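Hey Z.,

So I finally got round to the uridine-5'-diphosphate-glucuronic acid thing we talked about over coffee. Here's the setup:
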Amino acid sequence: MRISVIGCGYLGAVHAAAMADLGHDVVAIDVDAAKIGLLAAGTTPFFEPGLPDILSSSLASGRLVFTTDISQAAGCAVHFIAVGTPQSVGSNAADMRFVDAAVTALIPHLSDGDLVVGKSTVPVGTAARLREMIAASGSHAELAWNPEFLREGHAVNDTLAPDRLVYGLAAGARREESLAALNAVYATAISAGTPVVVTDLATSELVKIAANAFLATKISFINAMSEITDAVGANVTELADAIGYDARIGRRFLNAGVGFGGGCLPKDIRAFVARAEELGLGQSVAFLTEVDAINQRQRTRVIDMVRGVAASVDVDVATARIAVLGLAFKPLSDDVRDSPALEVATRLSALGADVIAFDPEANGPAHVRFPDLVTAETAEHALTGADVVVVATEWAEFIELDPVWVAGLVRHRAVVDARNALDAAAWRAAGFTFVGMGRP
Ligand code: UGA
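And the result:
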């Protein structure tokens, strides 16, 4: 099948390469010439495990081309809209300019019978509005919504082998044709048993935002519990293990720590609240404002923990040398958008601390946002001479650090485990004052 993918960010670049890997002919389009230049040369503009392999094999096969020329979408049967919907400047609502611009630019190149498929996370009602926009242009192309659930760091596998497919289809004469087109796009996953949920446009938009809202709520729930366990000397990890055995609850996304960040969860819950308020339904999702507040509080809590642990080794945080391990919003990613780790590092710097940070992949992206942030080339370099160590992103190489080796590098033995990822007993045995999130 001939497919166009409009938008080559985390979502679009992976989707384009994955579709080509599945055997489709793909034209991937973006307005950013520098990004297109890199991708066309087989270089990924961001870190995503597995993407370089399918990118280079798809380019070599000739099934994947990158261009800034939207007219190259002409002749494709299915057009995926995969542009970003970031938080608007000065409001909590999603910024829809990129989606609107992509569809507006695509319309002149559509043929009757084409299917435009939205993948971006959008406020409910967007798909119906875009469908009307296409019809009003005189085009006889149809529009469907097919939300994406990929996680950064696992994006290739999540795209090639998703745990479910959701199709939002409009009622009408073209419904069966749209269903058949999407089934053809995803034939490989469907034949492997991936469940398909076929629904209406609005439900499909809500599925995505509800899924992210639920995940964010789960994380803030356990972080709220960790505030309580901290106060009473209980253990949030054991609490999560124990409640997680209940299949109705489940253990995943119950890791307490510095909280969620990234380009999705934080802005999606805010956009959901903003959209619900527009609909006069603010009360229905008011709890998400609390989910956001709990999440933000964890960042301040980590700063307070650093202050406390520094004091325990007779160092003032304002003069301490602090090794911040991790800058990405989570491991296996170089994404620092709304990263709790990066915020902790920069807030400690603002307090006067001598911060030296290290992330295996995100030093560069962190520098783009904070050019003054001091970063190290290795964890060893960051740790050398530190008064306090903060593990802010749970990369495997930090979890695997030998505390005895670290003890030989640092000036004072004080560690804040902001991800509850370390073996507290081993660090304490190596002489560290150890502070975790809601666990002794
Ligand atoms: C999230 C969703 O998980 C995807 O399903 C969705 O497709 C994507 O957003 C999106 O909307 O595009 P992602 O942003 O890649 O994916 O990251 P997650 O793996 O969900 O992690 C989000 C944040 O939660 C990270 O900062 C992570 O460290 C934090 N987290 C996760 C916790 O603090 N505790 C946990 O137990 C799990």
